[in-house]
């Protein structure tokens, strides 16, 4: 089946359940937390201390005995102990489905004991996940290869997210650690769905419940892609939604998370014990005093920075590369030729350029997931 999927030319995918150039899947309700303008939202009382603490870690945590920080170029370990600046990961794919899109049941991978039973949708043939023809798992494919390696439904390592928005039903399907697709179904550790036309309560899909992201957040609506940035350059000037970002687990508050996250990792994984450590789910906002025009004359970069000032970014997962965008493989616009941007376009932005928005006190991680019933999401006109 993978050989068949990889043989379909990209230009033929439209109308086969993988729409080219379609907008990223977003929550349509303006009061959804991801869509809220937080320009004037109050900051956490110790916001400056938290960002100074993160800045200190970015300068002093060492990798193999070497300091992460090089003052001559302003580099620092934003993500983890790798020497990674404010870099963008462009390995994600987001596909689009409709009523004609093939679907597959869910097979627990690598076995039933590994599947996130309480947190995710039931692993069975009854859970039908859309799998657009010609689609691909995060990290598969390589457009820089000659000839290009097309995306596929085979995990090539890493987190291997699979992200598909059904434009007909307004349901977003996401899976994590997606191993493969074959005749028996989609093999994954966790598959689940989000209703894009509804507003979730402050604890999302359920208190202490994870998702395809460590914080329990949706993934695709917090990404940005070349089409979206290009449209904003020629339109509103910002993306209209918050952005996903990640830190190394060694610099995330040990065993804590804060709403709107519904999940974090225990203190044997997240290991920063300090009182000013940043918890899973933290909402950061680029300071209004940050001089965007002085930082970059690139209009696409300015779109992302204005978005970070107006909507901010949510700490969604642990890892080494701070920001996450989408590969332009399925997009009409391209990062390099249309926007003159690449993964290093935001180098130089520091933790101290951000404020931490007040979203309540952190909670202790338990892993005792209590799911929000689907019918509860529809109560009270979607307003909590």
Would you kindly provide a written description of the structure presented here, covering whatever features stand out?
- Helix content is 12%, strand content 22%.
- It is of the alpha/beta class and 384 residues long.
- The protein has one domain.
- A 5-stranded mixed β-sheet has the order 4-8-9-10-6, with no helix packed on it.
- Helix 3 packs across helix 5 (299-310).
- The longest helix is centred in the first third of the chain and has 14 residues, at 47-60.
- Residues 1-21 and 380-384 have low confidence and may be disordered.
What's the SSE blueprint?
Layout: H1 2-6, H2 47-60, E1 62-63, E2 66-67, E3 88-92, E4 95-97, E5 103-104, E6 106-108, E7 129-130, E8 162-166, E9 171-182, E10 185-195, E11 206-207, H3 226-233, E12 243-247, E13 252-257, E14 278-280, E15 283-286, H4 292-295, H5 299-310, E16 313-318, E17 323-326, H6 335-339, E18 354-356, E19 363-364, E20 370-371
Parallel strand pairs: 3-17, 4-8, 6-10, 12-16, 13-14
Antiparallel strand pairs: 1-2, 5-7, 8-9, 9-10, 11-20, 13-19, 15-16, 15-18
Helix pairs in contact: 3-5
State the major sheet: 5 strands, mixed
Broad shape: globular
In what range is the share of β-strand residues?
A: 15-25%
Overall pLDDT: 89
What class would the helix/strand composition place it in?
alpha/beta
- Which regions have little confidence, pLDDT < 50, spanning 5+ residues? 1-21, 380-384
Rg on CA atoms, Å: 20 Å
- Please report the distance between the alpha carbons of the first and last residues: 44 Å
Q: What order do the helices and strands follow?
A: HHEEEEEEEEEEEHEEEEHHEEHEEE
Count helical runs. 6
Describe the strand arrangement of the main beta sheet, using strand numbers. 4-8-9-10-6
Helix content: 10-25%
List how many beta strands DSSP finds.
20
Count the domains. Answer: 1
């Amino acid at each position: 089946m993978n050989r068949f999927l990889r043989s379909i030319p990209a230009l033929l995918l439209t109308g086969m359940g993988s729409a080219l150039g379609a907008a990223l899947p977003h929550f349509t309700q303006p009061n959804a937390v991801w869509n809220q303008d937080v320009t004037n939202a109050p900051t956490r009382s110790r916001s400056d201390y938290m960002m100074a603490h993160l800045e200190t870690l970015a300068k002093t945590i060492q990798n193999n005995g070497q300091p992460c920080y090089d003052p001559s170029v302003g580099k620092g370990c934003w993500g983890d102990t790798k020497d990674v600046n404010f870099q963008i990961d462009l390995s994600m794919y987001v596909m689009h489905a409709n009523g004609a899109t093939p679907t597959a049941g869910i097979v627990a991978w690598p076995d039933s004991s590994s599947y996130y039973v309480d947190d995710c949708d039931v692993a069975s043939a009854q859970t039908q996940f859309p799998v657009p023809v010609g689609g691909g798992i995060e990290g598969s494919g390589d457009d820089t290869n000659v000839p290009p390696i097309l995306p596929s439904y085979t995990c090539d390592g890493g987190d291997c997210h699979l992200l598909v928005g059904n434009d007909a039903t307004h349901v977003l399907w996401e899976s994590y650690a997606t191993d493969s697709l074959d005749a028996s179904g989609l093999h994954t550790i966790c598959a689940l769905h989000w209703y894009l036309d509804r507003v979730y309560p402050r604890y999302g899909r359920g208190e202490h419940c994870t998702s395809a992201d460590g914080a329990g957040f949706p993934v695709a609506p917090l990404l940005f892609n070349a089409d979206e940035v290009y449209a904003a350059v020629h339109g509103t000037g910002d993306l209209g939604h918050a952005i996903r970002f990640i830190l190394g687990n060694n610099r995330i508050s040990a065993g804590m998370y804060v709403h709107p996250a519904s999940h974090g990792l225990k203190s044997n994984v997240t290991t920063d014990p300090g009182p000013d450590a940043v918890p899973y789910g933290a909402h950061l906002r680029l300071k209004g005093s940050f001089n965007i025009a002085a930082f970059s004359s690139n209009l696409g970069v300015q779109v992302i920075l204005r978005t970070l000032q107006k909507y901010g970014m949510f700490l969604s997962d642990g890892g080494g590369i701070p920001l996450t965008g989408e590969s332009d493989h399925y997009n009409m616009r391209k990062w390099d030729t249309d926007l003159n941007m690449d993964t290093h376009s935001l180098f130089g932005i520091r933790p101290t350029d951000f404020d931490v928005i007040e979203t309540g006190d952190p909670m202790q991680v338990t892993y005792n997931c209590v799911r929000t019933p689907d019918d509860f999401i529809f109560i009270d006109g979607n307003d909590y």
